[in-house]
């Protein structure tokens, strides 16, 4: 069965500093990997996704993530954090069930706090 | 712009009440999903639907049912609400096709059961 682990519940980063959020997944086949962001009181918005090709993926808002198959990881990075990046971040792994239907499994989320 | 709307942002109900949460999309997407979101547990799939009148159980369907009579509308029903169903409920949609298609989310309904 698919699973996703986000080991950090909270992370605090100073504004302007770099950021890395960790994500490890378990999936039997080639995974489709996603990072979503949820701002307070909002639904989830897709930041980026990996499904094939270049293992370094660029997303919106200056985020990027690197797929490392050997480490079963898909860590999210940003070189310089802005106060508006304070939000909750979810990693998800997707695939096609035996029934043929798409399904996403989400991690438990990492809450990012940005200090002045 | 994709639009996924949910009928209420906040809802307060009493134990034992029947509760309807509605999700409406304007994208003509085939797949619709209901998740619940709880602190420390992330998002968990309750039910999904891949076509009108078609549904599949997700990971935590107990205590819930769903209805999809029209393609654009997917309802989550709590037959007899209980306090452990207090949660944030999120609706999502995606087009049929590759499993890496993006899921688009609504703003969520925060349900409190007293």
Range of strand content of chain A: over 45%
Average pLDDT for all residues of chain B? 93
Query: What is the rounded Rg of chain B?
Result: 13 Å
Sheet with most strands of chain A: 6 strands, mixed
Mean of the pLDDT scores of chain A? 91
Oligomeric state, counting identical vs distinct chains: heterodimer
Shape of chain B: globular
Low-confidence parts of chain B, pLDDT < 50 over ≥5 residues? none
Major sheet description of chain B? 7 strands, mixed
Helix content of chain A: under 10%
Short characterization:
The complex is a heterodimer of chains A (116) and B (114). Chain A is mainly beta and 116 residues long. Chain A contains no helices and twelve strands.
What key phrases describe this protein's structure?
heterodimer; A: 116 residues; mainly beta; six-stranded mixed sheet; four-stranded antiparallel sheet; 54% strand; globular; B: 114 residues; seven-stranded mixed sheet; 11 strands; 0% helix
């Amino acid at each position: 069965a698919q699973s996703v682990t986000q080991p950090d519940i909270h992370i605090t980063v100073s504004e302007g500093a770099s950021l890395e959020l960790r994500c490890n997944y378990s999936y039997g086949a080639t995974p489709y990997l996603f990072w979503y962001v949820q701002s307070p009181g909002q639904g989830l918005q897709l930041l980026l996704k990996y499904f094939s090709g270049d293992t370094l993926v660029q997303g919106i808002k200056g985020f990027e993530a690197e797929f490392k198959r050997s480490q079963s990881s898909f860590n999210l990075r940003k070189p310089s954090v802005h106060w508006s990046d304070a939000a909750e971040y979810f990693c998800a792994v997707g695939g096609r069930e035996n029934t043929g239907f798409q399904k996403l499994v989400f991690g438990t989320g990492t809450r990012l706090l940005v200090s002045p | 712009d994709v639009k996924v709307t949910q009928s209420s942002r906040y809802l307060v109900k009493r134990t034992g009440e029947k509760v309807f949460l509605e999700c409406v999309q304007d994208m003509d997407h085939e797949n619709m999903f209901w998740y619940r979101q709880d602190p420390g547990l992330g998002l968990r799939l309750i039910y999904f639907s891949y076509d009108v009148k078609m549904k599949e159980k997700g990971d935590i369907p107990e205590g819930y049912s769903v209805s999809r009579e029209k393609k654009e509308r997917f309802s989550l029903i709590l037959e007899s609400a209980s306090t452990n169903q207090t949660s944030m409920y999120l609706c999502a949609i995606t087009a049929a096709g590759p499993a890496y298609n993006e899921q688009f989310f609504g703003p969520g309904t925060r349900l409190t059961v007293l």
